[in-house]
Amino acid sequence: MEKLEILRQPIGQRILRYASLDDIAIWGVLALILLDWDRVGRQFGFLAVFALATVLFRKLIAKLQETDRWYVSLVWLAACSFAADWSGLHYMVGAFLAGAVMDAHWFDQKKMDLMRHHVLLAIMPVFFLSTGLRTNWAMGGPAVFLAAAVLLLASVSGKLAGTHIAGK
């Protein structure tokens, strides 16, 4: 979408919104599959603290200059990621939540595009590598592969459906 220059257009934003809905659903289903009742309390605690911290973060960020917003936002992103990981959620869930409560108009669009480029080039491969290295293929046997296939099918179908619906 970036190469087609529709990422910043209303249609591009709509495509991203619809395609993201299935990501949220997949994370929810995965959380249910891997449900560990020992961690549920920590996860509810994380979500409660996150809700309170979000209010404080948004008040703080509105008072800062744009250059300072970048630093505070990166600390916010890291803190949410680490807290989510501590609670038993994946750190990407924390990062997603951290980004979901930020407004795009707080940042210069050219700088944001440059950051996106660097993240996709340098950080995303590290994420996939670290996730792959932590995968335990012996856990659950064939049931894990079946669940992974179902989740992959749901994810791809959701992306295609989201793109199709947004295109109408």
Could you explain the architecture of this structure?
The relative contact order is 0.14. With 168 residues, the chain is mostly helical. The chain is globular and about 50 Å long. The two termini are 16 Å apart. It is 80% helix and 0% strand.
Please report the number of helical segments.
6
* Share of helical residues: over 70%
Mean pLDDT: 81
Low-confidence stretches: none
Radius of gyration computed on alpha carbons: 18 Å
Percent of residues in beta strands = under 5%
- Termini Cα gap: 16 Å
Tell me the structural class. mainly alpha
* Number of E-state strands: 0
The biggest sheet, with number of strands, parallel, antiparallel or mixed sense and barrel status, is:
none
Q: Using the alpha-carbon principal axes, give the shape.
A: globular
What pattern of helices and strands is seen along the backbone? HHHHHH
GO molecular function, one term: antiporter activity
Organism: Ligilactobacillus salivarius
Subcellular location: Membrane
Membrane topology: Multi-pass membrane protein
